[in-house]
Amino acid sequence: MKAIVHEGKKGMQGLSLKDFQEPEAGSGMVKIKLMTAGLNRRDLMVLNRHKEDQPPLIIGSDGAGIVIQTGDGVTNVAAGEEIIINPGLGWEKNTDAPPSGFEIVGLPGHGTFAEYITLPAENVEKKPAHLNWEEAGVLSLAALTAYRVLFTRAKVKEGDTVLIPGIGSGVGTFLLKFAKAAGARTIVTSRSQDKQKKAMEFGADLAISTTSDWNEELKDETVDIVIESIGRATFEKSLQIVRKGGTVATFGATTDDIVEIDIRHFFYGQLNLLGSTMGSTEEFKEMLDFIERHNIKPVLDSVFELDEFEIAFDKLKNSENLGKIAFRVSE
Ligand SMILES: NC(=O)c1ccc[n+]([C@@H]2O[C@H](COP(=O)([O-])OP(=O)(O)OC[C@H]3O[C@@H](n4cnc5c(N)ncnc54)[C@H](OP(=O)(O)O)[C@@H]3O)[C@@H](O)[C@H]2O)c1
């Protein structure tokens, strides 16, 4: 089968489209023919985490397709069903944090940028009927992350004002749609004027530049919640803009992991700082129910063939995307 495989060298240099052994479904597993797959910033990071001396790895966490084989003991799904993949392995219930052993599809195990994948049967869910294959293939990781950080962790409620720095982000675009559906006022930032304009078109109440003085731009706003994922470039600005007693929830550090904060402002301001990562199977099911009830579709930036992977990865690396990038895997 065709697959995007990482081996031998760190970064993009180790990545190629090649023939790879097709997997078979063992006990409790399902074999999926992938129709589409979705890119995440994680895929760029995996290229550096997967070591030169480790066996070849098919990368990719997101995908949608058709079950073509079920292993012994599988009862929740049958061959022929259209499904999407839940990329979180080993986190069933909505607990405070993932249990030990929690892993993500696409490192250390093989991922979705291939014609076929085998996964535990509990990691597939029925494809939402209102999504086409491209939309279904880019949904899972980003929408699950957005759902948990916004609802489980930050506990957004109707009437809150939510600030989302870096709206180009795939997760950010779900945060915007989810927060709007929850009845919140939404403010987004971007370095790109074009992305600011487009974000207003699909529902943001206000869009400002990421590099502007937020306290000046938002002097008439009261920000209850900031959902942070940029890291060093914006973290301190996020803490400075949230209202006294407000919440900053973070799930990413696109620019840098190490940040400096004004701790006095933090404690005088009675601020809440929360961390979040992905989500459980329970939250994945809640998220699917939520997007079906509110008819929410991913913001799809572009669709590439597997052999165009270098263009797709470059686009993501350079933040030229607004929302999600898909691969078309099969016809
Ligand atoms: N913990 C988890 O479970 C989890 C899950 C998903 C993602 N993440 C992390 O969350 C982050 C977002 O993920 P994603 O897949 O949505 O990423 P993405 O689609 O690549 O978006 C990243 C966005 O960050 C902004 N950005 C990038 N460099 C910047 C800079 N130097 N200064 C200011 N803004 C910058 C850009 O927004 P503009 O172009 O609009 O400026 C860009 O679109 C990543 O760090 C990812 O690893 C974590």
From TrEMBL:
GO molecular function: oxidoreductase activity
Pfam families in the record: ADH_N, ADH_zinc_N
Span of domain Enoyl reductase (ER): 11-327
Domain of life: Bacteria
PANTHER family: DEHYDROGENASE, PUTATIVE (AFU_ORTHOLOGUE AFUA_2G13270)-RELATED (PTHR45033:SF3), PTHR45033
Protein name (record): NAD(P)-dependent alcohol dehydrogenase
Species this chain originates from: Bacillus salacetis
